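Section 3.1 - Work completed
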Amino acid sequence: MTADPWPPRGLAKPAHRALAGAGIGNLKELARRREADVAALHGMGPNGVKALREALAAKGLTFAS
């Protein structure tokens, strides 16, 4: 089994740093977070949130409710 690609394609470096600073290091950890909380991270923009949403969907995951 291969690991999920991290960071997802299309994710800018500031967004990647924001995730790392929040302790999010893979898609399963990301799926435990609410989209609004991830979007509020310093360095995370709308394109980053879109890339994360698409990466989650590709693995059958979603942001937490």
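Second construct:
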Amino acid sequence: MSFRSIFFILIPLTVSANWPQYHGPNWDKSTEGFRLFDSSGLSHAKVKWKIQTPLGFSSVSTDKSLAFTLIAKEDEDGLLREVCIALDQLNGNQLWQKWLGMANYGHSGGNAGTASNKGGDGPRSTPSVIGGRVYVYDSSMNLYCLSALSGKQIWKIDVLKQFDGENIMWKSASSPLLVNDLVIVYGGGADSSMLGLDQVTGKVIWKQGTETPTHATPAFATIHGVEQVIFLCRSGLVSLRISDGKELWRQAFPFKVSSAASPVVAGNHIFCSAGYGVGAGLYEISKTGNVFSSREVWRKRNELVNHWSTPLHYKGKLYGIFGFKEYGKAPLQCVDLLTGEICWTKDGFGPGNLIRSDNTLLILSDDGYLVVADATSEKYNERLRRKVLQGKCWSTPTMSNQLLFLRSTEEMVALSP
């Protein structure tokens, strides 16, 4: 079916129009209240604007009329540095930029702007925004709080220096997690490897653990009535209570080389997956009195691998791109959460990414195709396929204010109905 025969309409309902952080307003890669309807022979999504976004795999966060992402470019001394940029959502005009740390990730790879499938240089973290403040965690583990309107620095913390931390191979890639009044990050050394900081002042509210972080952004969950943040560390899953940082439970999970996909929360179940032969597992979290515990529901070694593309949960099913270094080939799959059995599979997406809008999946393939498909376990049902970007697309789509934002290592596009 050609995209020219698709009627692509976006209708907003009564929910927040913002996508304030990596994985969205509900921390689950979804936004309710934007519906995609399609019929034949009428129209298709339009390119509202397109700009250059050199280097990196940072996704987009939004607040009101603004959009934020990270790029990399040379400074006046010819050194490649990470840069946070703020854009006008309506026209893509750059409103300000903030120079961050060096874009040097300590491995030999192709330049991220080329057709090479090696990682190369470029930021992987995504800014988070709330209350007129933008939080950026660069690869050197500098945490910035910036004015959303001007980019002026409000405060900055060198996490490695202040908390005696040590960076990981290929440097940090996780994004700041905003919950309640906290900004939560990995990074410190002994007894401070997981940090909850005051959003306004940067003051330490709690610090916990002697863990080695991974590249995975932590996940937020309310399990058995208790708000908690779940970190995927080298030792496995570690859950801390949001209010005071107290450890609630932990679950061993293997680590090899790198873990980059975030844990997926589905009620009182947690799914996690990693590459390099690790595979996937599902864990059930229980609570007796005030004591939490975790048990393995199933474990598939070197199967259902999420290299860095975090799947999403919807109505008892996981939808995601699974595969390890299958550039241009990795399949989109629907997986039964409780059994790990594959309901359907569709090849050819590569390590791209996806989000959900109501009962519709919006998928960005690694070679720049926007694909719209039904979020149903019955069969793969594609509604639209359109080439929208050049460059390597490992970033997660964002939907806000009746616009769909997609970016690559070369450019960023905003699509409107």
